[in-house]
Amino acid sequence: METANEKSASLSFLSSYPTCWSTNQSTGPEICSDPGEPWLDAEIVVEGKSVVVNRSILSERSQFFHRLFNLRNDGSVSEGKPKYLLTDLVPHGKVGFEAFNDILLYLYTGMTKESPPEVSACVDDACVHVSCPPTINYAVELIYACAAFQITELVSYFQCLLLILAENAPVEDVIPILVAALHCQLNRLHSCCIQRIARSNLDNVCLEKELPDEVSSEIKSLRVKSNQESEANIKEVDPMHEKRVRRIHKALDSDDFELLNLLLNEYEVTLDDAFALHYAAAYCNPKVFKEVLNMGLADLNLKDARGRTVLHVAARRKEPAVLETLLSKGACASETTSDGRTAVAICRRMTRRKDYIEASKQGQETNKDWLCIAFLEREIRRNSMSGNLAMSADVMGDAFQMKLDYLEKKGDIYFLVLVHCLLIVFA
């Protein structure tokens, strides 16, 4: 059952936001479709695609664009039209083509539409797209654009939406929300994300690798304070052990296997103690990961403190070379996380519909997302076929033995001799 919060989060991002002005202009999604229209007098390049815009309307509706278009020397000129790169206009985060057009539609008309599912929903059939990574990432793109273009009413709206998502999403998916809150100076959202992560079992390695130093330090301080106040029976961390684990991770980061071997020989810490395969699968070059795996000193199916195998970590990263190496070495594709997800379910939930569909089109370069899903599904099918064959063989063997027992009881000695001869011939 979905909670009330989850139902709110599952609503389309822009489908019900109220109009903040009325307009009699026939502006809509088609407004930027024809570069030949005389009133489309500037270009903004988004993900390599040119979007033609009307400077007059945007200047009237947005102080940001008013200032931008009044800077005489800003923008290059393309066939008489000023040309701007969206990456220059939005300094933090990534804003895709679809998100930019959603915001542009709002600026032109004051109207909104449903967010396109191809970029705001994943390809996991079991997902209701309440708080999956594509849903979160699309909301993050929109808030980056709204903050950069100073559209305060939409910033407030998306901050409320992201507050709901931050409470309901898996904790690792809260990280991009926290980073966006930091860059967009959204204090309420920032505080919510910090508290959520501090309460979680997200390890310090993840915090240090994926968050700015000041943010990870703040979370660690909150955890220390919370533990002291609650006096919970929390397993104490040996500072010396943690220091040695960090050195092993640094050796992996620098691709220094000579140092890695020295550390393993000197310390009473194994690759499994340091979850070295998990670390390499998440953060290291695929070649480094393969070298660590080929050392043969780590358990391929070991689960970390959060109940994830190396394959689960690799599925989240979506690096085909790492996944293929793991599967070739015998990693179990059917193993589940503590919350019941397989590697392929993780991978599907990380993948946008747009990426999965486009990767399947003939003549296009195969997308990493599609490849990872294909590798994992192929392995599951192979295991399923092997299991079915083994089961069939067992059933046939049992039936054969029952027949022999029956014939033996009847005393059909000639048939039994024939059967034994056949078994000797084909053994």
TrEMBL record:
User: Residue limits of the BTB domain?
Assistant: 40-116
Keyword set includes Cytoplasm: no
Question: Biological process GO annotation list?
Answer: defense response to bacterium; innate immune response; protein ubiquitination; regulation of defense response; regulation of jasmonic acid mediated signaling pathway; regulation of salicylic acid mediated signaling pathway; systemic acquired resistance, salicylic acid mediated signaling pathway
Q: Name one GO molecular function term.
A: zinc ion binding
Q: Which InterPro entries match?
A: Ankyrin_rpt (IPR002110), Ankyrin_rpt-contain_sf (IPR036770), BTB/POZ_dom (IPR000210), NPR (IPR044292), NPR1/NIM1-like_C (IPR021094), NPR_central_dom (IPR024228), SKP1/BTB/POZ_sf (IPR011333), Znf_C2HC_NPR-type (IPR057250)
* GO CC annotation: nucleus
Subcellular localization(s) per the UniProt record:
Nucleus
ANK repeat spans: 306-338
Tell me the keywords, alphabetical order.
Answer: ANK repeat, Metal-binding, Nucleus, Plant defense, Repeat, Ubl conjugation pathway, Zinc, Zinc-finger
Name its pathway: Protein modification; protein ubiquitination
C2HC NPR-type domain sequence ranges: 119-133
Predominant location? nucleus
PANTHER family per the UniProt record, alphabetical:
REGULATORY PROTEIN NPR3 (PTHR46475), REGULATORY PROTEIN, PUTATIVE-RELATED (PTHR46475:SF7)
* Family indicated by similarity: Belongs to the plant 'ANKYRIN-BTB/POZ' family. 'NPR1-like' subfamily.
Record-given protein name: BTB domain-containing protein
Organism field:
Citrus sinensis
